[in-house]
Write the structure tokens for this entry.
Amino acid sequence: MSGVNLSGIVKAYGAVQVVHGIDLNVAKKEFVVLVGPSGCGKSTTLRMIAGLEEISRGEASIHGKVVNRIAPKDRDVAMVFQNYALYPHLNVADNIAFGLRIRKMPKTEIEKQISEVAEILELTEYLHRKPAELSGGQRQRVAMGRAIVRHPKVFLFDEPLSNLDAKLRTQMRAEIRRLHNRLGVTSIYVTHDQVEAMTLADRIVVMNDGKIEQVGTPMELFMNPANTFVAGFLGSPPMNQLSGVLNENGAEINGVQIKLNVVIADNVGRNVVVGIRPEDVTLKAGADTSALPIELDLVEPLGSEALLHAQRDGTNLVFKADTNGSIDHLSGVKEVHVPAERVKIFDAESGQAINL
């Protein structure tokens, strides 16, 4: 067995349980992202894998070896933190080499490792600088370099880009993904940012309230969310959700009929949530679309597209529309058209997706 495997992992602080029996298998060389709102247990789960938090119940293994009782330094994992955790009095080379010197690695080997990692991370010209003389992105690369030189079995990232500005976050996302493609080390990455999750992950683990809601590839989760929580969390903007009732012709949303490309059969009268992605609507009617009247509040131009902020029966909605170089034609929008094949249906009580 390879990679990281969690079986029935529970974390409790006294009588308060914060992680509730997580089962997860991360394959060797896979890049898995744990994503969810603050306080959902994702960082706690990562810290249990690293050995920084004790596992209350369950079993964690790394490359087939159970690590519950193994000290963090002996688990052969490397962790990259949100706050860089660099030594301010050491230069870049010494920060990268610190762990190697603790392990009493030969000087020539240390210098070789520093040179190789600096080249990978484009830090060669900064090796003699102190952390205070570096940008935020450069500091984060130094922190990553310190992890890489250890050649660990697993990389653990705990919201490493949270302290960077938007432009640097985008650049560092691409660098982290390229680095993973080059090194091929099993990686587990924690973030609350669903854009990071979508762009980085081979698979995403969506967590909420100490539990796993859904696991899958980014597009699997985007196209087929398991429940209303995942539907409302992934996507920018997230999926619109409207209360409705199933009938013989599809779904009725307070007097408005929405076509579905499935047979309702025995589900007539069932209370549901109708999910519509902002990017799935059009402004023109089609052969298999339904008109959804809206009250437009705001047009937010983003360049090639714009966000239409609207209301429907007291529910806030957001849709995307092409600008074609101008937003003048969007100010009078009174309805959007919803393709039947893109509508998602969830049970109103449980929130779970319905496969009709």
